[in-house]
Amino acid sequence: MTRRRLALLAAIAVVLPAAAQDADEAAEKAVRTAAGRAAPSVVMIHTAGGLDAVAGGKDPKGKTIFIGRGTGATTGVVVGADGYVVTSSFNFANKPTDIFVTVPGKEREVATVVGTDFSRMLTLLKIKSTGLPVPAAVPKAEVKIGQTALALGRALDPTPTSAPSVSVGVVSAKNRLYGRAIQSDAKFSPANYGGPLVALDGRVLGVIVPASPQGEGETAGFEWYDSGIGFVIPFEDVLAKLPALKEKKELRRGLLGFNPDPKTGTYAEPPVVAAVQPDSAAARAGLQVGDTIVKADGRPVPHFSALQHLLGPKYEGDAVKLTVKRGDKEIELPPATLLGSSPAYVNAFLGILPIRSATVAGVGVRYVYPNSAAAAAGMKAGDRILFASRDKAQVPVKDRASLATFLSQMAPGTEVGIDVIRKEGSKTVTLKAKLTPVPDFIPEKVPLVGAAPAARANEAFVAAFQDDPFAPKKKDAKKADTGLLERTDAVTGRKHWVYVPDNYDPAVPHGLLVWLHPAGAGGPRDAETMIKSFRPFCESSRTILLGPKAEAAEGWTPSESETVLADVNRVMSEYAIDKARVVAHGLGRGGQMAYYLGFQARDVFRGVAPVGATLGNPPRDNVATQPLSFFVAAGGRDPELKEIEAGKAQLDEKRFPISYRLMKDAGKEYLDGPTFAEFLAWLDAIDRL
Length: 689
Known about the structure:
CATH topology of the largest domain: Thrombin, subunit H
Strand content: 25-35%
Domain PDZ: 244-328
Structural class: alpha+beta
Shape: globular
Pfam family, one: Trypsin_2
Number of domains: 4
Largest sheet: 8 strands, mixed
Helix content: 10-25%
CATH architecture of the largest domain: Beta Barrel
Distance between the termini: 92 Å
Enzyme class: hydrolase
EC number: 3.4.21.107
GO molecular function: serine-type endopeptidase activity
Radius of gyration: 30 Å
C-alpha cells in the first residue's frame, strides 16, 4: 500500500467521525432552538386537594392502576394572550380543590377552570396575567407523517424559567381516534400530559393527552404511557374551539344513537341499523331498524369504520346528513343534530324462558316470570309464540334469536302483540304485552323442558317460510368425547381442560361456562373441584365447562384474552354450543379477567359472573345487539368490597341487567351454598326473553 493511499485513508478516518459529530451537533442545536421558541408558552401547573387516587386503566398483568393525588407539577400551553391556558383533563382526574399556574418569568397564580372539552379531554384554565405569548399552530394540512416532533413538559424541573424537558420522536400517523388526533412515538407520560408537541420550526403540532380508541374519560389511555403510542389533539383544532369552550363551558362528542348489526362487521360492508336508541339524534332524523347507511354528509360509507371517522370529529350540536337504503329505495334523511349524551339502552323484557330443544317453528314457553309482561298478558308455560307485532307491523318468530332481535328493538313500556298457539289446540291467540325492564329476580326452579305443540298446524305461519330451518339435526356418526378432557395447544403449549357431560347430545345446543381460576390455582385439583360442583348442573341444564390456565402463578393478564378465546372457539367448533348461553366466570383475578373478556368479546359472551373481583376500567355502553348480563358476588369481609360495589354501581348506571349477591361472612372466596344455588338458577335463565 502506497504512502499516499495510507494518508488518504487516515484522512477519511478523521473526517467521517467529524462529519457524524457535526450532524449530531446540528440536530441537537435544531432541537434546542425549536424547544426554545416554544418554551415561553409552556407553563407549569400544580394542584392541591382532591381524591387520594382514581383508577387509571390496568397494567400488563391486568391489575388496576391507581393514579395518586398529584404532588408534582404538570404541563399546559398558553392559548390566549389574556390569560387562557389549555392542558390535559388527566391532570384534574383527582378533582383537585386548588389549581396553580406558573408562566415562565412570572409568579405562580391561582387558576380557575373555564371549561372542559370531553371529546378531546382538554381543560381550559384562566389566570389574571395578560400579554402572554401564544405559539403558532402547524395547520393540519401541513402535518407530515415521519416529520420530527418534540414533546415538551414542565414537570421534571421545579424552576419554570428553565428549559422544558424534551422527548424527540416523529409523527407516526394522522387522523387517529376517529379523526380527532395525531399519533407520535415520542415519549408521553404524566410529565408532559397537557404540554405541546412541537415541530422543528417551533410551531405547535398539538396538545399531548392520554387517550385510547376504546376507553373514555380523563384517564383513558394512561396505561399506554411511555409505550411509543401517544396522541395529541391538533393545535389548530384547539384554537378553533376556544370561543365555543369559553361560551358553553362544556363540549361533548356528538352522538348519533344507533347500533349497527354485528353481522356487517367493522370493515366489511356498509352498516345496517340493528337498533335505534329512543329519542336519539338518529331517532329524531327518522333512521329505522333495517336501514343501510350508504352516505354521510355526501361521502360514501363503505363500512362502519368509515362512518366512525366521519362522526369522530363532530361535537354535540353539529349535524350530519345521512343517506340510507331502505328496501329498494335510497332515501336522504333530514339533518340529524347530534346529541352530547344518549339515554343508556335498557333491555326490554317479555318475561319468559324459552324451550331450547325446538324441533318446530316458533318459540316454546317453558316458564313465565311472575309479575312480568307475559304473565299480565295471560301467557302460559307450554304456549308457542308464532308472531310478534308492534303498530300493526307483524313479523314471524322463527326461533329464539328472531324473538330476541324483535325485543331488542323495543323499549320498556312499549306495548307489543304476541301471537301464540296453545298446547291444548291449534287455535292462535293474540296477546297484548307491555314490556318491562329486566328484573333482578332469579327463578328458584323451573322445568328444563316443556310441551312443544305442533305449530306447523298454523298455515299462516308456515307460509311465512319457504324452507324449514328447524329440521332435527342428525347425530354425529362418531360419538363425541365426554368427561374430563385435558388438552394442550400444539403450537403454544398452553393447557386447558374441558368437561363434557356424559349425556352430551350433538343434536342439542349446550351452554358454555368458562371458568377463570384465581391467582395461584389452575391445577388438577382446581379442575376436579369445579367439575364436582357443576356436574349435576351440566347434565341437567346441558352445559359444558371450560377451564383455561393462566401462564403465571400471579394470575391472568389482558394479553392472554386471545388465547382464552382460542380455547373457547375450539370448544365451539367441536361441540354444539348455544351462543345465547356462553358465560365467563371467575374468582379474584379470574373475575377481573371475566369482566375484561365480557366487554372485549361482546360477540362471544352473553353473561359475566365475577366473584370477589373489581371492575377496573369503566364499563362500555349496554348494546342492544350484543346483550350482556351480570351475576356479581362479593364477600362482606373482602378488603376490596368498596371497589367491587363501586363497579356494580357503574354497571347499574349503564343499565345492564345485574344480580348482585353479598355473602356477609365471607372474605375473598368462592360462592357459599345459597349463593351458588342462586348462581346456577341464574345460569339456567341466561337466555330469558
